[in-house]
Amino acid sequence: MFYFLYPDKINLIMKPSINKLQKFFTLEAERNYDNKAVMGGLINILDPWEAEAREDEVPEAIIQLVRSRLKDYQRLNESSRHDILKGLWDRIRKEFGRPVQGTAPLPKKEIEKKTERAKAEVKTETPHPTPAPPIKKPAAKKKRVKPEGPPAAFDADVSVLDGVGPKNKEKLEKLGIFSLGDMLYHYPRRYNDFSQLKTINRLQYNEEVTVIGVVQATNVRSTRGNTKLAEVAITDGTGTLRITFFNQPYITNTIKKGESIAVSGKIDRYLGRLVMNNPEWEMLDQENLHTNRITPVYPLTANITQKWLRTKMNKVVNYWALRVREPLPKKVLDSSSLMDLPEALLQVHFPDSIQELESAKYRLAFDEIFYLQLGVLQQKRKWMERQAASYSVSDEWIETQISKLPYELTNAQKKALNDLQTDLKSGKPMNRLLQGDVGSGKTIIAALGIGIVTNSGVQTALLAPTSVLAEQHYKSMLMTLSENSDILKPEQIKLLIGSTPESEKKEIRESLKTGRIKLVIGTHALLEGPVEFENLQLAIIDEQHRFGVEQRSILRAKGNNPHLLVMTATPIPRSLSLTVFGDLDLTVMDEMPPGRQEIGTYILFPKERERAYRLIKKEVDAGGQAFVIYPLVEESEKSQSKAAVEDHAKFQKEIFPDLRIGLLHGRMKANDKEEVMAKFRDKQLDVLVSTSVIEVGVDIPNATVMVIEGANRFGLAQLHQFRGRVGRGEKKSFCLLIPEKSDDIENERLKAMTDTNDGFVLAERDLEQRGPGEFLGSRQSGFGSLKMASITDVKLIENARTEASQLLGSDPELSLPEHKLLAEIMDYHWHKGEGDIS
After folding, report:
1. CB within 8 A of 756, min separation 6: which ones?
2. pLDDT per position as a tens digit, 266-313
3. Are 611 and 604 within 8 A, CB to CB?
4. Which residue would you say has higher pLDDT here, 445 or 172?
5. Segments of 506-576 assigned E as strands
6. How far apart are CA 563 and CA 289, in angstroms?
7. For residue 268, what are the β-bridge partners?
8. Pairing of strands 294-297, 190-193
9. What is the DSSP track for 366-415?
């Protein structure tokens, strides 16, 4: 059990979808993590919950994080399930309730003092907004003079504001606004540029515009499909624009004839006339705050209007923004041409011009990435301060081992091996991420690294996410290090997984403790308390994003500063390698072994499914095997998606009655899944019908066909991983993508799959389309909560990383007086347990 069972102890007012998630987690904890809080397991809540979360405007990073954590929940043991849910809930609490970025938390007494001081000051001093007139080129601005008095009371409660009583306070809390600091960092989601308005007679098709007009007429009518259309006609004296709202008939109760409104949206065309459909809109008054300038449009919640919130924001921003202390040293500000933080906060809320707004956005985005870079670089420095044993072998030894391989190493593999050798003999603990596309040959590099270390008589552990993958590694290492070489004896290499008999587990544990076993390959069973090593010096983690921070720490703790190699077959975009994985040394294997054929990838209309079946039959008759992947385990009334269980039965009875069909999905017991995969690997099955549990690492050289049903429901990275399950032998292989509907043929992700087999290209596109959630795994929580910065902005990331590196070079501990505030911010955002040195 843990604290999310007691919501009354958490100062959060949450969105309905988050409340629902909390109930699921609470029930799961009460059931001791048996994955039965929901019928069929927590994976069954993902699709409906994701839709509800998007309606609640839950940040996409949170949605993707929940999906990535829970999709494999059924595979974990009770302890790991506890860790996953606790980590998720910690992350959600930080997203919806933590103090604002840019300030360190204050002691309770100090908060009370600042709150009282804020009450007095806000009520006695009226802010004087000075909006800029509409201009095309901003004149040189005088630098605002910082007001006398105390610094900004970030922690003062929003109730200090006039007009914010208990009810309005509760509404603001639904927006994640608890304090004045939260208000300063509650950025507008867009802007209406009333300083550059267009008249109706100058509008052009397909442009995004804001138009001000007077309502001429309103009307509600029904279409054939019983859709209610609310129609509003506005005029500005130069022409008339018709506006249509779909299924919002109530709007005509609010928008009345003769009222002035502003509408923002894309100009469309209907029956030859320009129209606007479902635009953003708001009533206008004559205040300068709301017209004749660039006006912020804020995220809202029920019963809060733009005008009310904008007025409160204006009061807070104009009074408190200039009292915010500047955390960055002057050298960084000058080097990167950054706007001062107080000015940036003013301009991002109430910009004087588009140029000022862009400068403010850049400054705030820079701050977010800069703090992250400081964090990962500090972690990397702390890791490098440690000492580790040094391991090296002669060039002759390396050449001898390579000569025993049945193929030549690629240039990328040679570079990776050189990186490992350099790390292992450095005397500092290796902390390297080895990333390579599926089939690029990472395993042989890991095997040679193991050989270098065990050549000195010490031990290595290789951790894999599934028993199937662990067993695959075991067989590969046995062949590479023992059968084809004399590096290790067979009895010095052991496999430790959940299904290993208890008597054998006991024997393995004893041999690890005495040092007789030099290499152990296993799953979570390796992390259990009784597993002790005589001298663990190299820890290798495969598919590292499948493991949590705690799990990696447990494995490292079983040795004395062991060298660490983490591997992933998910290509990582450059922007993420500089941020999310910025504390790791990176080796990229972007070259495929010679002779590997490109996988033919095609999109089929749903009605062309028979073509896929004919290809499967043809390939199986020629001695091959096939995968058929489904997005769902079973069909449901709520979804039209095809599902594995039903189609498995259909395949066996109707479509392929003479073939051997296997079924694999997440609800099966671990032993049953292992048995099915073993049969498929050993060619006892011709076709494997599976859900997404198949995506990681399984090596079936004989498989030549991958059919993906409901392909539009999967992300690019996942689709590429599926495709990587075939084409691992010498035969030509195929990947067929079948979307749910014919309309989905134009899906961008599916088209990208047919354009290239390059996983790195696809990873960049996936990041652009879906955000970083798929890549983050269990890395630092701060990366999913960027408000202003884009994780795809490589130029900004490189600039922030350079500045952070130079700053830490001159002051590694941030101990200089001018870095005091920066150190407080970093201490808050990277407190114990927040980061991940691995």
Report:
1. 762
2. 888 888 788 988 887 877 765 533 445 788 888 887 777 777 888 888
3. yes
4. 445
5. 519-522, 536-542, 563-568
6. 60
7. 275
8. antiparallel
9. HHHHHHHHHHHHHHHHHHHTS--------HHHHHHHHHTSSSPPPHHHHH
